[in-house]
């Protein structure tokens, strides 16, 4: 019998939006220009057995929250450094950019990732449909199953930590698979549709060194509805 991991009501309320919110599908919220941890639309144990409740709780409440708090701290320092234009303050701004890029990317990537997941019976594991489903059939040999093979191969090839994304090319309107190191976000010409986290903290407590099993199992809880909305937007 699996352990049930529930979000306390007080914590759930603390993570809700208080002011401005990114437009869907990214549900990340900002309070007084500070990033906040987005609430999840499912309990931590809802994705079992593909992803354990323990991993989900640590991944969301600890790892993602660290990206949020570190991003806010670095942003606050940057705002202070921007008040004056001395050589020292300009050097401070330059030094802060890698921190903002890393923690900001981690915040964006995880906010998208949570929406890419859903319990079985509530969208998780169902095949893609609509315009995105048709585009996948046209773009990958074997359609949906072919795409999963391509992404799993790309995931296995990531050295160290990173992400694998199904992306939309905003110039050609085509779709493709791209990998990104560390917490680099999908920006510029490409739009993120669906991402898989290949960092060890996403799977190690459950799968240890058998990361290929995680890459295979996560598809049982992938929520294509979120990706379809991003593709159509």
Please tell me about this protein's structure.
The relative contact order is 0.14. Helix 2 (53-81) runs antiparallel to helix 3 (87-115) and helix 5 (143-156) packs antiparallel against helix 7 (211-217). The longest helix is centred in the N-terminal third of the chain and has 29 residues, at 53-81. It is globular and about 60 Å long. With 233 residues, it is α+β, with helices and mostly antiparallel strands. The chain has 8 helices and 5 strands.
Q: Order of strands across the widest beta sheet?
A: 4-3-5
Mean pLDDT: 88
Biggest pleated sheet: 3 strands, antiparallel
| Fraction of residues in β-strands | 5-15%
What distinguishing features does this structure have?
two-stranded antiparallel sheet; 233 residues; 8 helices; alpha+beta
């Amino acid at each position: 019998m699996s352990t049930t991991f529930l979000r306390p009501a007080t914590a759930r309320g603390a993570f809700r939006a208080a002011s401005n919110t990114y437009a869907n599908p990214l549900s990340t919220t900002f309070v007084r220009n500070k990033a906040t941890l987005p609430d999840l639309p499912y309990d931590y144990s809802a994705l079992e057995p593909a992803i354990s409740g323990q991993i989900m709780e640590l991944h969301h409440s600890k790892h993602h929250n660290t990206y949020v708090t570190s991003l806010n701290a670095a942003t606050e320092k940057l705002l202070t450094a921007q008040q004056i234009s001395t050589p020292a303050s300009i050097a401070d701004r330059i030094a802060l950019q890698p921190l903002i890029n890393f923690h900001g990317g981690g915040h964006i990537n995880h906010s998208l990732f949570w929406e890419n997941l859903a319990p079985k019976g509530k969208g998780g594991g169902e095949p893609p449909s609509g315009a995105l489903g048709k585009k996948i059939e046209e773009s990958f040999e074997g359609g949906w199953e072919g795409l999963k093979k391509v992404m799993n191969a790309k995931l296995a090839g990531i050295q160290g930590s990173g992400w694998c994304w199904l992306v939309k090319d905003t110039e050609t309107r085509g779709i493709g698979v791209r990998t990104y190191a560390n917490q680099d976000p999908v920006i510029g010409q490409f739009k993120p549709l669906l991402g898989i986290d290949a960092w060890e903290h996403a799977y190690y407590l459950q799968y240890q060194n058998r990361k290929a099993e995680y890459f295979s199992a996560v598809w049982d809880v992938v929520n294509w509805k979120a990706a379809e909305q991003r593709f159509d937007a």
